[in-house]
Model the fold of this input.
Amino acid sequence: MIPSSKGRFEVLRDGVPVFEKSRLDRHAKPGEVLALLKRQA
Done:
């Protein structure tokens, strides 16, 4: 995890974006990030 400021929330896997709040203009839904990570496994 890398702390940031200004409400950024990004999840990367091996340097590849999995979820980017700034791009989607919304917060992740419950379970959404986990589902995205599992899909990439």
Observations:
- The CA atoms of residues 19 and 32 lie 9 Å apart.
